[in-house]
Structure formats: C-alpha cells, structure tokens
Design a protein that fits this description.
By secondary structure, this protein is mainly β. Helix content is 3%, strand content 47%. It has a domain of 90 residues: Sandwich (Immunoglobulin-like), CATH 2.60.40.10. Strands 3, 4, 6, 7 and 8 form a 5-stranded antiparallel sheet that branches. A 3-stranded antiparallel sheet has the order 1-2-5, with no helix packed on it. A hairpin with a 4-residue loop joins β3 and β4. The protein is elongated and about 75 Å long.
Amino acid sequence: MVVYHSQIFLFSLVPREPTNFRVEAVPPSSIQITWTAPEDRWNVLTTYTIYYNDTRTRESRREIIFPPAESHTLYNLNANTVYTLRLAASSQYGEGPPTPTLQIRTSTPSKAFMGDHYTVHILENAPIFAYRTLCQY
C-alpha cells in the first residue's frame, strides 16, 4: 500500500485588509483617518482606497492614497453629518478585502471657527461705511 501525503498552501494574491483602522472628527468639517499596512510578504502595495459615504445626502465617494502613507485627512465635509468609512489595500493583483465599516459624525461648527467678516461699501464721493456681519452656516 502506497500513501501519498501532500500539503496545499492556499494564499490570496490580493493584499489582506489594513489593521488598526481609526477615524477621528477634526473641526470644523474634516475626518482624520489612520491605519497600519497589512502584513503581506507576497504583495507590493500599490494604493489604498478610502470609501466614504455621507449618510445625509447618501453620496458615496472614494479617495486613492499611495503607500507608504498610513494616514489621510478628508476635508470640506458636511458639518454635523454622519459618515461611514472603510479602507482597502491594493496590489498589482487587485484590491483586497476592506476593513470593517466605521461611522463618525463630523463636528458642529462653533463660533471659534466662524470668525468675523467685514463688508465694505464704497460709494463715489461718499465716506466709507463698514458693516460687521457674522458668517452663517
């Protein structure tokens, strides 16, 4: 009787998901994202893709980030809005599985970030009047 023993090693050609995926609201309307690159000795990472969704307008967006970056800030988001975010790494073989989805609410604008603005009206042959106005969101 002849017995054969074989081992099969299965591995994916696409990278694993990034680890330590974290998000933080940064006033007035930004989100700071950090992560750790996946441990994957078979692949050379080519990009990270951040997928994010504004739950108020239901608009889905994505941003491409290039390694070795392990952080990114999303700017000019809607204030006081919940966003869902996930992150995936890609290699020459394609995109790997995304991180679990995280949710975060952007900050509410405060007077500290509103600032003061001045409107100046200039009339021909007349004195200049300055009116103080508040910037409103």
